[in-house]
Specification:
Mean pLDDT: 95
Distance between the termini: 50 Å
Strand content: 5-15%
CATH class of the largest domain: Alpha Beta
CATH architecture of the largest domain: 3-Layer(aba) Sandwich
Radius of gyration: 25 Å
Low-confidence stretches: none
Number of domains: 3
Length: about 500
Amino acid sequence: MKTELFPEDIRPFILPEPGGDLGYDCLKCRARLQPNRLYYTCPHCGGLLTITDSARQRLHEKPGSFWRRLFDYRRMSNHQAIRGVFLFHEFLAPLIPLTDIIYLGEGHTPAVAAPLALAKEVGVSFYVKLDGLNPSASFKDRGMAAALSYLKYLIRTQNLTQVMAICASTGDTSAAAALYSASLGGSVKSAVILPQGRVTPQQLSQPLGSGASVFETPGVFDDCMKVVEYLSERYQVALLNSKNPWRVLGQESYAYEVAQQFDYEVGDLALLIPVGNAGNITAILSGLLKFFQAGVIDRLPKIIAVQSERANPVFLYYNQPATNRQYVPVTVRPSVAQAAMIGDPVSFPRLANLADLYQKAAGPESFFAVEVAEVDIIEGMIQANRRGLPVCTQGGEGLAGLKKALALGLIAPSETAVVDSTAHALKFMDFQNAYFDGRLAQEYGITTRPELVNRPRSLNLTGPKPDGQTAMSPEDRQKFVETAAKAIAESLGLLETNEKP
C-alpha cells in the first residue's frame, strides 16, 4: 500500500525518522556508554550491557491506541525497511535510519493454531509460532537484522572498513550471522566457531554456503563461546552472539508480533520459550514490558522458560527458594534440543534482571521455569508433525514444556498457550530419523516407541522394472505399473472400485 493512501492523520508516522536517546547501560556498575561503537561488556567493570532509550517517555506521550493503529497500518506498507522487525522501529532501535536497515525477509512469522486433534491430545488450546520461516530458517535472523543494521550504521558513520564478524554457534546463529554479513558485501566478512560433531549437516552447510570461514573445535557450545569471548577482548572483531546487546534488541520483535497477532490482547496467554543462551527469552520479556509500559497492551502474558534436564541452569536457578537463589553453570550432556544445549548462558544476568522486573509488573505467578526429559522433546516434535505442525526439536521442547506446565498446574486447561518453534523442522530431521532407527538410546537415553516409528517401505516386485537408464517397452511399463500399484494397494488395504478407467 502506498504511503499517500494511508489515513491522513497516520500518514506522517508510517516512515519513522531516527530518534530516541539510546545508550549502553551496565547491569553491574550502572555506567552508561554512548552508542558510537560496539561494546559487549562494560569497559569499567566487565558487566553485561543492555541498550536502553533514555528518551523512552516520548513513547508514552501517545496513547496505546495510537501505536496499535500505527503498527497495523504500517504492516500494509511495502517499504522494505519497515517490512521486517523494524516495523516496530520506535520501540526497537530508533537510532538507526531507515537507509541503514537490512531486510532479508525476516520477522512476521505465523502463529498457527494447533489442529483440534493435537490440542485435544495435549489438553489445552495452543498456537505454534513458526520462527523457522525466517530467511536462514531460525529466530536468530531477528537479532541479526538489528545487529547488522547497527553495524552498517557504524561502518557509514565511523568510516570503518573490512569488519570481521564472528560468533560461536550450535548452528542457527552461524547461519544467520553468515547470511546477514554476506548481505553487506565485501565490507563485512564472517567467521563462525562450531562444536565439532554437535551441529546438524543442514546447519553446517548454511554458513559455508554464505561464504563464512568455519572452524570446528572440540567440546560443546560453551567451549566455543569462551574462544569467541577471548577473541573479542583482544582482537578487532564484531561479536554477533547474544552478548551483543543489539542482537537482543532485534529479538524483541517476537514479543511485538505476538501482541499484534492476538490483537494486542495477550493477558490470558502463556508463552512457552525454549532457553539456550537466554538471549531470546530476555528479549521477549523486555519487549513485552516496553509495550505494557507504553499502554500498547494492558496486561502481560505468563512466560514459561523451558529447558532440557540435560542443559538446565535456568531451571535449577528458579527451582530454588526466591530468597536464596544461587546461579551455577552446569556441564551439559547431549540433547536433541541441540540449539539449546548451553550450560552457562551468556545472557543470564539480563534474564534474572528482567524476570524480576516482569514479576514486579505482572505478579509472582507471571514467570516460571520447567525442565523436560529428552524423550518428551523428540516425541513432542514427532507428535506435532503427525498432527500437521512442523516443529523443530526446540519446538518439541516447548511442546513438552507445555505438557509439563499443565501437569504442574502452572497453566490451566482454560488458558491459551503459544509455543515457540525456533527453527525450521528440516534442520533437525536427523534426530527424527535417528529416533525411528533406535539410534538415540546410547547417547541421549531415549528408547524408541515402535508405534511412533515410520520408515520407507520397499516394493519387492517381480517382472519388468525400470532402471532409470534403459527405455521400457509400453507392454513392460504397463506390467510394472500394474504390479507396483497392486503391491501398494495390498500394503495399504485399499478396496477396489467398480469403476474402470
